[in-house]
Structures are given as C-alpha cells and as structure tokens.
## 1
Amino acid sequence: MQKKDKINTRGAANTGEKPTVVVAIEQNFPKEERIIQDAIAPQIISGSGRFWVYLTKINAIRNWMVNASEKSIQGVWSCFLVRKRYIDERLIDEVAQNRINAVVNLGAGFDTRLYRLSEVQHIPSWEVDQAVNINTKRERLQKVFKEVPNHVKLVPINFLEQEIGEALEEQGYLGEAKTFFIWEAVSQYLDETAVNKTFDFFAKAPTGSKLAFTYVPKNFITGENFYGAEKFYKQVVKRKLWHFGFNPNELAAYLSNYGWQLIEDLSYAELNNRYVKPTGRKLGAMEIERMVYAEKL
Ligand SMILES: C[S@@+](CC[C@H](N)C(=O)[O-])C[C@H]1O[C@@H](n2cnc3c(N)ncnc32)[C@H](O)[C@@H]1O
C-alpha cells in the first residue's frame, strides 16, 4: 500500500482543469465536427487555458496541437471528450426517466456538465474536490454566473484523509435520495485505502442509484503493460501522481462486494466508435483508461 505522504495531491489538483481546457479548444472545431458542445468551458478555465483556446482558433495551430497530443499518447485528445459525452447521456437519461433525485460529482475539477446541461438544473447536486480547486471554481462560477447556480453545492475534501459522507452532509447531502455519482478520472490519483473508503460510501447509497466512473487498468500502474506510453508512465506513475488501477477481470466482483452491479465496462475504442466516428474525424482511442457504469442493488 502507498503511504499518504507519497501521494502528490497538489499535482492531482493541477490536473483538474486539463479536461475542460481540451473541451474548450474543441469548441473551435466546426459545430458538426465537435465531439461535445460546451459554451461554459471556454469561460471557466484559467487565463493560460484561455490563451490556448484563443491560439487554436487558427486551424493549423489546432491541428498541430491535436496531432502532437496524439503522438505523445494515443487517444489522449478524444478520451476527455468521449467520456464526458457518455456520462452526460447516462445522466440526462436517468433524469428524464425520473430515476434519480441527486447528483454527486466526486473529483469534479472544472467539469461543466451541471451548469451546461439544461436537463439537470432542477436536480440538487454536489461537486466535491480539493479545497484549492473548489475555491477557484467558486470564484470562476461567480464570474460567469454572478453567483454559484443554486442547484449546486461545492464541497472541499481530501479523499485520502476525510470521510466523503461527513463532508457532503455538512453541505446538506443526507444520502437518502437516489443519486447519480460521477467519479471521472479520479480513482488513479488515490491509494487502495482511499478507493475502498470511497466504495464504503457508495455502499450506503439507496437502491437504484447509479455510478459512472473511469479507471486505469492495473497492469499499467504496475508497469506490466505500458500500452505504448512508457514516457507517460514515467510522468504519472514514477512521479507518484497515479497510484491505483483495477484489474478489469476483477471489477464486477469488486463492485458486487459493495452492493453494486456492473452494467457496462467499456473500452475507449467502443466510445470512439460511438462519438468520434460520426464526426468523420480520425482520432486514436485511449487504452489506459476504461469507462464503467453501475447500478446500486
Ligand atoms: C484528472 S482531474 C479530473 C477532473 C474532472 N473529474 C474531469 O474529468 O473533468 C482529477 C481530479 O481529482 C481530484 N482529486 C485527486 N485526488 C484527490 C483527493 N485526494 N481529494 C480530493 N480530490 C482529489 C483532483 O483535485 C482533480 O480535480
């Protein structure tokens, strides 16, 4: 097991904005080629992120950026976009069918879906992240909307040290409503203890709650398979940023131990087929992350 002092939580906090910067740059593609539509992303990112959005209005710079990212890690451009589309669609569907009454986004970073999806804005929601990101997000939301939209509560936490249930309860989430949980690109930044503690929390969710989360295959974390991205492995695993992965073969049993049933465990090749192919763009599929959807029994 990793020691807490070896976990680079500050480094993890710094990753909170990157997916939203990619989504913001994506808005510079012609509408019919965009994998995701998001008018809030360009407004909620930092000044340096906005500078890149400005530069990538020029087609040649934008194409250079996408190609350079793809060369460094196959699928790294589309992965942020397709996972967001997938989670958006599951969430919109659950709300439309009246099957959930709350949303909790754990490690929300600068994700915008609770602000951009009109379909979910009547649902009480909580966004949870490290204090540094929560405070910055509050300031930026105040700039964009004048105040934090009142269906969302922002909750500061360190998952390695605090109880999720207690932090949420302080902000009015009592755990009684059927909840749509989002845990997008977060599990790899935690240690096994914190992942198990997160599932102790999920285990208390009412029947019918849903969970959409991504994970990194365990054999990447252990260095048994670099998936062609050895340089990236050195950046994220050796430098103590990523710590945890699931073995896909053990996932259903793991979820079942906590009272959850696996609905699907998708590769990004499948997600790209769904969301990239119809745009006509040629983008690689990320192999070092997978997308899971599950239901509480
Ligand atoms: C790669 S970002 C993903 C952000 C967002 N979910 C998305 O996909 O757009 C990882 C997020 O997890 C959060 N995180 C990582 N470790 C954490 C911890 N120990 N406690 C609280 N949040 C943590 C980071 O602060 C960061 O915002």
Note: The chain is about 45% helix and 15% strand.
## 2
Amino acid sequence: MGNKTAKVRLLRHTPNPEELVAMSARLCYSPSSIEEISEGVSRKDQAGFINKIMDMGHLTVLEHASFTFGIEGVSRSLLAQITRHRIASFSVQSQRYVGETKSQNQGDTFGYVVPKKVKLLGEDAVEDFCNQMSQMQKWYDQWVERFGGDRSGYEDARFVLPNAAETKIIVTMNARELIHFFNLRCCDRAQWEIRAVADEMLSQVKQVAPTIFEKAGPGCVGGPCPEGNLSCGKAKEVKERYLKNG
Ligand SMILES: Cc1cc2nc3c(=O)[nH]c(=O)nc-3n(C[C@H](O)[C@H](O)[C@H](O)COP(=O)(O)OP(=O)(O)OC[C@H]3O[C@@H](n4cnc5c(N)ncnc54)[C@H](O)[C@@H]3O)c2cc1C
C-alpha cells in the first residue's frame, strides 16, 4: 500500500441546497403557508434570500442543507483533528476490524502519509521515512502473530502503528458547520494536511452551493484576521485568493 495522497469527494448532499435554505429564510419572514413555501423559491430569488439572511447572522437556516464527503489517503493525525468538530457525523475505517497485516495490504506496508516537510528534504529523507514505516509493519505483524495470528490481535497490535497511518473517513456536516470548519481549517494557522482537505471540500461545495459558500474560507475572508499575534500577516492576499476562487 505504502505512500498515500489525500482524495476528497463530495458523495451526497441535500438536493437543491440553496433552494431549501432560501425556502427556510422566506418562511421566517413571510406570511406564506408551508404549502406555498414547499413550491420552492425561484432560482433568481434564491441568492437574494440567502445573502440577506446570512448578513443578518440568522445562520440556523443553513443547517437544513447537509453535505457528505468521502475522504481517504489521509493520516490518523488528520483524523484526530477533524473529529474535534462536534457538529459533524463521522464513520471511520476501523483498525480493530480491518487488519494491517502484509497479506491484507497487498503491498509491503500499511498505507501511510509522508509529511510535506519530509518530502521537501528530498528523496533520501522519503526513503528513510518509508523504511521506518516498514519497520513498524514488521512490529505490527509480529504482534498479530503473538496474539494468535487472527483478527482478534488487530486491536492491540495497532498500538505500534504511527500517526502517519492512512485512514478513510465519511463525514457529514451541515452548511453552517462547514462554514465554521472552513473558518478554522482553511486558515494558514491550521496544519497543512487538514488545510488541504478543507480547501478541497470548500472547492467542491462551491460547485453545488455557490451563494452559501461565496464568502467561506479562513476567518480573514469575512473580516479582520481573528488570530491576533499568531496571524500569518497575509490577510489581504489570503482574502483575495479565496474570494477569487469563488
Ligand atoms: C489552528 C488550530 C490549533 C489548534 N490547536 C489545538 C490544541 O493545541 N489543542 C487542542 O485540544 N485543540 C486544538 N485545536 C482544536 C480546537 O480547540 C477545536 O477543538 C476545534 O477547532 C473544533 O472547534 P469548535 O469547537 O469551534 O468546533 P465544533 O466542535 O465543530 O463546534 C462548532 C461550534 O458549536 C459550538 N459548540 C459545540 N459544542 C459546544 C459545547 N459543548 N458547548 C458550547 N458550544 C459548543 C461552538 O460555538 C463551536 O464553535 C486547534 C484548532 C485549530 C484550528
């Protein structure tokens, strides 16, 4: 299996997410019946309703639209970070039920992510890193064997696997949580792996809900940088980059 790269795919989303959010916004401020609302809001009026309600900070209407992503080729280190987001639903490939033995891997080692900094150091560094992963694979295989050689050993043998080990995740977030997630994780202060995944998620949701996510991105896109002394100092160019990619 070896060296992996991140793959992010928007698997499913609420059908016509912007129409539904606009309908919810309209319901709040008009005398219309649910039946009238259920007929929908014409495409030309949707952006107006959405922009108005978002400018007012009435963000609960965004919670009706949800988005489900398949993410693979990412590390357990990313997993620890993304699962801190509590207003989200996760399914994660189990290291208890899915073994990382050589025979199951159909390769030399379990899947893993080589950190950016290691790659920047050059081929020798990448080779050293891969050799270290191979060593961990040996330790893992030895423990599975000592625990009886079957799947009952996976849950404890995995203790010798690294943060670099690949995982696969299905995650669902509603539009409000996604905007919050992008705020934190598209920021230059976020760790490179989750930032790359967040950027990819943002680019994919923009295709299906361009108005909702028009101003989504790190904190500085919607106002002054919230990071204080820890700011990257590049708020202007970061903001331009995210607004341009809309
Ligand atoms: C750059 C960066 C560095 C970080 N470094 C660390 C670190 O060193 N150590 C560490 O432990 N974590 C760290 N984190 C993780 C961070 O502390 C949060 O756990 C994570 O970003 C999720 O944020 P959240 O709680 O706002 O989001 P979510 O869990 O997605 O929640 C969304 C929002 O819902 C509301 N909410 C959710 N649950 C509750 C609740 N129980 N009570 C009240 N309101 C709630 C809050 O308004 C919250 O902002 C870091 C995150 C970033 C982006």
Note: The pocket of flavin-adenine dinucleotide is lined by residues 84-87, 177, 180, 184-185, 189-190 (CB under 6 Å).
## 3
Amino acid sequence: MSARASLGIDPEELASCVACGLCLPHCPTFRVTGEEWASPRGRISAMRQVQDQGAAIDQAFLSSMDTCVQCRGCEPACPSGVPFGSMMEATQAELARRRRVDWRQWGFRVLGHPWLLNLFSRGLAVGQRLRLVPSRRLGLPKIPLRQHRLRVSGDDVWLFTGCVMDAWQRSTHAAVKRVVEAAGAGVALPGAAAGCCGALSLHAGLEGHSRALAVRTMRALEGSAPILVDSAGCGAVLKEYGKHLGTPAAVAFSKRVMDVHEWLAARADRLPSALEGGQDLTIAVHDPCHLRHVQRAHQPVTEVLTPFATVVALDDDGLCCGAGGAYAAMQPELAAAIRERKLEAIRRSGADIVASANPGCTIHLANAGVAVRHPLEIVDEMVDYDH
Ligand code: SF4
Ligand code: SF4
C-alpha cells in the first residue's frame, strides 16, 4: 500500500500535539520498544507527514499505526488534551478503505450475527475438547460446550450482554446479574437483538459496520432505563455512540450507559454482607484501559470489592496489559512483551487473585497463568445471599 492520502483527521486535532513527549512513559509500545515510531508522539508525527506533507503510506507507516494497542493511555497523560483515540480511529478507517484483503472485515462481520457466532463458538468448543484447536497459541479461553440461559427479572436496568463475552463467558453475565439483583434491581436483557457493540470494528477502521451495529444496539436497548455494562471495552464504545453517530438519539443513549461498578458503587449499602472468612482474600485490581483512560471510571471497581476483601492497587500507573481487543492475536509478540510488565506488577502486589472488568484482559492474563476473574464474579462468590 503506497499512495498519497489524506487521513481524514480533523486538522485542529492533528495540530494540537506540541511534541512535548510527556505521554511517552504512559505508552505500552514505547515502554517495550523504546522506539519513537512506537510512541504517541511518533505516531502523530507520522500522521502529519502523510496528511499535511503528502508522504506515502508505506510499510513503516503501517507498522507504526498497527502496533498501537489503542489503549488511549496517552490521552490522560497529555497536557494539551490531544484526542489521540479519534485520530487513530480516522487513520484506521482510511487504512481499512485502502486494504483490499483484510480478514477482519469478514471475521468481525460474524460478531454481528449472534447465531453464527454461537455456531462458530460451539464448533471451537468441540475442537478444543478433541485437541484440534491450538488454544494456547491462539490465546483462546476454554469455551463452554453449552450455554446457560439468562432470564429477565424485571425492567429497572438493562444488562448489555454483547457478542464474544456472551458466547464465551456467559457465566460472568450470570454472576453480574445475581449481584445487580441482590442490590434490588430487576434486570432486562437484550438477547440476540443487540449483539456486538461495534468496538472491534471501530478500532479496525470498519466505520460503516461499527455504525450499523451501533444503530442496532440502540434499537434493542430502548426506553429510559440505565444500561449496565460489564465489559470495559464495550462500555467505552457505548458511551461514545453520541460522538460517533452525532445524533440526538445517540447522545441520549450514551448518557444512559454506566459501567456496572459505577452503578453498584452508588448502591453498595444495598448489597448483602460478605460470607464469614471472605475478607482473608487479597485482590489486585487490574484497570482495563477502556475503563481507566477512556471511561475514567476505574475507581468504583475498588469501591465495590473493598467490603469483601483486601484490595491492593498495582504499582504500574495503569499501564495496558497488551490484550487490546484483537491486538493479542494480531501482534502476539508485542502483546506478550507488554503483558510481561503487567505480570511483574502482579507478582510485586503479592495478591491471591487479580480482578479485571474486561473480558479481553482476563483472557490475556489467564493465558499467562494468572488467577484472574471479573470483579463481580468474585463478589458473587463472596456475598452471603441468605442474609
Ligand atoms: S500527544 Fe500530548 S503529551 Fe504526547 S507529545 Fe503530543 S502534546 Fe505531548
Ligand atoms: S493508544 Fe496506547 S499504544 Fe497507542 S500511542 Fe496511545 S498509549 Fe501508545
């Protein structure tokens, strides 16, 4: 791919970087490579060279862009407020338009069809049992053979169930639903009517597809009830539908979206107490990037866990774990190198178990042998539902 191009980035956004470099220590790919081209400043400079100076989109440019985890750890670190995420989304959209062959265009379309994803997932599950699928190499969790049915219990709140998480980790949704119900709310479920939120498509630059998924999701989660999300990556995108679609309906929809821990932290006094002896556990909280840097709502996870265990923070300033949606599959070596730093922080914490509110992070960390659960799975096991 070598052609001159505009990347469609807002010129003011592109000009807002003053190249101070304060974001560099917060960038996981810069931390593991030490290379300018793998830093936010280097990536912005490369975007400027293409968009403002007519430089060609060559292999070096593609490597610089495609190795970005899109964790957005550079955004809160930037004193100039550079909106790196939207600049990278515009760049990826232009690259997707130019790629003639991109397996993601087909792979991510499966996510928009829950019946197809379920069929594919059951096939994978059988293949895993027959040892025909190299799960470890592909970074796959153990996929369940059968799905438990989740039942609607009311209409106080929606629980967004999504696509891959619903097909592979529905037991997490079940635990989250029990905890939300214990806090006094009846839970409505969109089922197959919603499906994928469009996050993976958006990060891969498939704008039209992510937009279509957003419209369908909004239609499925109708009304005015809060929309609770137990996957940080999905929650971040649902909260940005207003920005992406730019319609009053999308803005109103995004205002209803809450990470489930945000909703629970405000109702912590309604939850039953912990089972006796539960507080002996020490939990390290790994903040998913899309909860910490994008939603900026990571603190409620600690607030929700604190009555049930000793909670410790990791001492790595919230650096990414390297999961990044499909990143671990697309850039396995960099993803593993980034994860190694997270593993060192986890070891230093001395915790018994790690809690992470994003399915991609839990899968990526579990593949390295970490004992990791969704925070509300831990609460579900520790809460005394009889009292
Ligand atoms: S993105 Fe922000 S922090 Fe990073 S170099 Fe540019 S102005 Fe500085
Ligand atoms: S989004 Fe993450 S990986 Fe990409 S430049 Fe920013 S900090 Fe680095």
Note: The mean pLDDT is 92.
## 4
Amino acid sequence: MLLQIDWRFLLLGEEEWSFLPEVLFRSAIMFIISLVAMRAIGRRGTKQGVFELVLIVTLGSAAGDPAFYKNVGILPATLVFVAIVLMYKIVNYITARNKYLDDLVEGKYARLVKDCKFAVESCKLDDLRHDELFEDLRLKGVMHLGQVEAAYIEASGQVSVFFLPDDKVVHGLPVTPELHEAQLDEIKEKGIYSCAYCGHTKEIKPIKHHPCEICKNEKWVRSIKDIRVK
Ligand SMILES: [Zn+2]
C-alpha cells in the first residue's frame, strides 16, 4: 500500500486558511497569560527563569501535538512558534532597555543570608519554605549559616552563596535536618544557640522562654562551628 498524503490536511488539519492569523493572535495572548502565571507562582515554585519556562510551556504542545494528533495541522503549530519567538524577542528588547519592566517580568534577586543569618528584613521568609531553602543551601555545600557571608535568591530561582574563609567561620544555625530538627523551647544548659527561624546566634544561659531579639521566635537550635571539608 502506498503512503498517500493529503497535503492540505497535513498542513492545516481540520482548520481553514482563515484560522492562521487567529493562531498568531491566540499564541500572543497565551504567551502573556503564561508569563503572568509564572510570575505569580514565583521563581521558587518554578525553580528556573520565568522566561525559559514560558517558552517550554507554550512551545511544548505546539511541537508535540501535530506530531501525533491527526487533526492538528503543521502550519498552525509553526505559526505558534513564529508568534512565541516574536513575543520573546519583543519582550526581551523592551526589558533590556527598561530596568523597571525587567524586574517586573523576570523578577529581582532577593537577599537570603546576610552576616551569617537569614536576611529576614529583606525577604519574607514566610513565603519561602525553610526546608526548600535549607535544601538549596545544602546543595551548595553549606552546613551552617556561620559559614556564609551572603547568599541570594537570583531572578533565575537559583541560590548563590558566598562563603567566609575558614578562619572567619563563626557559630551558626545548622541547615542539616538532623541538627535543625532538634529544636528547643527551653534552654537547659548554657551554650551558643541559633534562632531556628532567622539564624540569629548568641550565647544563652538556662532559661524557660527566650524570644529571639530579631524575629521573636522562641525555638532554638544548638549552633555549630564546623568549617567546610573540601
Ligand atoms: Zn530569630
């Protein structure tokens, strides 16, 4: 049996030629909707640049659908690519020239750690889950915040870490689960403790309740001062 191709059906699927301009328009709108949605989810949820994800989402089905859905034509799918690439170029052009729009579209970095504790004043830690942050820090080789001079959540969703030299490492909040989960309400013996929430570290004498001076949290974790093993 010879392979017979219905070229019109292959190119257009079940649509008419008049549908093609509409595809461009629809694609542009879906690009904007995806962009807004990804921004709303935020970089911590998407774990990558907003732009890259929008491209993957919008182009994904356009590339896949005509490959195995009989009624989806190749031309409409190709026009989706044209529209999305154009939109991408346009938004890139505009945001490269306008800092405000760039922050609006792609997001801005947030300071995560400053001077060996979480920068609670500059980033709302409530929005950021401790377990995820700790995971990111551990993946960067951080054992406790006393090793970290500064850390940022970049617009791309990645975390960048700047370490203190070994001889400048101080006591800090451990980010390993075993140590961080051992939280204390009551300090029974004198020692150096870190606030389980913000990482504020200090010597505390035995006391029943001791709210953190920075964030008012009352749970404490024994600080550690290990240097990094390289
Ligand atoms: Zn605190």
Note: DSSP finds eight helices and seven strands in the chain.
